[in-house]
Amino acid sequence: MKFATKAIHAGQEPDPTTGAVMTPIYQTSTYWQREPGDNKGYEYSRGTNPTRKALEDCLAALENAKYGLAFSSGMGATDAVMKLLAPGDEVITGNDLYGGSYRIFTKIYANYGIKFHFLDLSNPEIIRQYTNEKTKLVWIETPTNPTMQVVDIEAIAKISKEKNLMLVVDNTFASPYLQNPMDLGATIVMHSVTKYIGGHSDVVMGALMMNDEDLYKRLWFIYNACGATPGPMDSFLVLRGIKTLHLRMKAHCENGRIIAEFLKTHPRVDKIYWPGFTDHPNHEIAKKQMRDFGGMISITLKGADLKETFRVAGSFKVFTLAESLGGVESLMNHPVSMTHGSIPKEVREAVGVTDNLLRLSVGVEDVEDLLDDLKQALS
Ligand SMILES: *Cc1c(COP(=O)(O)O)cnc(C)c1O
């Protein structure tokens, strides 16, 4: 089945007891047992719930994976992956990560004896230099947040496989509509479902998708044992959001392109980060592994200090100044004070996350209104 059909139907058979076409919200924590152990496949909703199961099957289908697991947040999903590791293990990851990923690696898992190497993965060969017998996992994000660097998933997957390392790809920014890392050799795809997949800024959720049955069982064990699993109402909302993922993504990409082109020549804009530009340093890789370039754009304001950047950030009327991304509404984010506040100044500035950087999540409003808003705020 093609993407749009899967988005609308995967995992969602009419309800067997009533024929309801939409998956019901099974708002129950527990399930009747005929006698101890004799049940209908559901025992307790931390571990299994029919609404969440329908969502997980749909999520797996969107990433061309066999198995899906939904978590109560993207960070909950990341946490479950890290629990596959043991003290002494080493992880190779990028040097431009979502702030929360950097935080859980350095402030939580480093304390449990796991060692992280934050590398510039624009040359995947660097992975070989940092791999030893303790290395277990490679964690990448592409495009990165917020400077939109693109790394070559297929090349990294090849080296990971050769070295017997699990490759996890945080596919949040691209969404499954633009990029499918499983097809390029990833072991696990991770999503903050909160963003494009949910799409309406009304749910916080995460997901993992994978093909390996043994790995699925190990992750399900962690998911059930540790309990960061979402409830049925949120699962329902995300199932509903996914039905328009393909329509929304088309509109995000269209508006994103128009706005990126407008900003590129704007006199107040210094740097602009959007992988659709032919002069973006990783444009060729983006073209190879993504179907389009999305609606995430970062800019730096020419000659602006923190105060001036705050003034501009506060003067939008259609773009809403807020953390997060991927919803139908356009959002404006100031990474240094918002999403990336937990990253030390030297670390973030080394990858271009400076005080005058603004990140736009271009929504699906009428693009004329978005352009007018940018014009007035930048003037
Ligand atoms: C938001 C985000 C996360 C964390 O997800 P939550 O749902 O907020 O816990 C992880 N990675 C990326 C790229 C994100 O944008």
From TrEMBL:
Any Pfam family the entry gives: Cys_Met_Meta_PP
Positions of region (Disordered): 1-20
Cofactor: pyridoxal 5'-phosphate
GO cellular component: cytoplasm
EC number(s) given by UniProt: 2.5.1.48
Keywords carried by this UniProt record: Pyridoxal phosphate, Transferase
Domain of life: Bacteria
Gene Ontology MF annotations: cystathionine gamma-lyase activity; cystathionine gamma-synthase activity; pyridoxal phosphate binding
Residue list for modification N6-(pyridoxal phosphate)lysine: K195
GO biological process, one term: cysteine biosynthetic process via cystathionine
Top-level enzyme category: transferase
PANTHER family in the cross-refs: CYSTATHIONINE GAMMA-LYASE, TRANS-SULFURATION ENZYME FAMILY MEMBER
Recorded family membership: Belongs to the trans-sulfuration enzymes family.
Entry protein name: Cystathionine gamma-synthase
Source lineage: Bacteria, Pseudomonadati, Bacteroidota, Sphingobacteriia, Sphingobacteriales
